[in-house]
Amino acid sequence: MPAGMPLTTQAVAAEFWRSKSLAEMNTAEWEALCDGCGRCCLHKLEDETTQEIFYTDVACRYLNLHTCRCRVYPKRLQKEASCMQLTLAHQEAFAWLPPSCAYRLLYEGQDLPWWHPLKTGQRESVHEAGISVRHAVVSETDVAEDELEEHIIYWVDTP
């Protein structure tokens, strides 16, 4: 469905995320939780002493910087070794997700934020709310790996 088009699936109307746990969701529901912010595709650095995670403004080469969607999503795990498939079997990955991420919020027992496309019915709402990485990041093809620390950023989240 093109960006900006209303979300009209039966699952949205039923607000499945309120009545099902992450473990109970089917594949379509699980995928629908992604708000399209693109933050999970940013390079992150971890302080080895404190385990604090720092986001950079450097995105995976496969992230479309305008739509904030992966250009190779079906083959992302084969194309990018550092890409993770988010599942409940890899719960440690939830800590690497941004605080505004639907998967992380639901995993932590919280609700989706007001701007989430499943609540607004509009795919663009994540961009309009200023949550996405649109117009705020560069591709990893433009940054040397040893320069990542110079690209640390701090997001202000308002889930």
Automatic annotation (TrEMBL):
Protein name per its UniProtKB record: UPF0260 protein SAMN05421831_101357
Family according to the record: Belongs to the UPF0260 family.
Organism of provenance: Allopseudospirillum japonicum
Recorded superkingdom: Bacteria
NCBIfam families xrefs: PRK05170.1-5, PRK05170.2-5
InterPro entries: Puta_zinc/iron-chelating_dom, UCP006173
